[in-house]
Amino acid sequence: ISIDSPMARALLKKEVGDLAIVNTPAGEASWYVNEIEYVK
User: Fold this and answer.
1) pTM for this entry
2) Top-tier CATH class for 1-40
C-alpha cells in the first residue's frame, strides 16, 4: 500500500481493535483491525 493512499492514511497509528474509516467515491467504508503482522 502506498503511504499516500487513503487506505494507508486511515490505517496509520491504528491498533488491534481499532476501526479504520475511509471515504470512497461510493461512500464511507470501514475496516476492523483484528491483527497486525510484521513480516521480515
Assistant:
1) 0.71
2) alpha beta
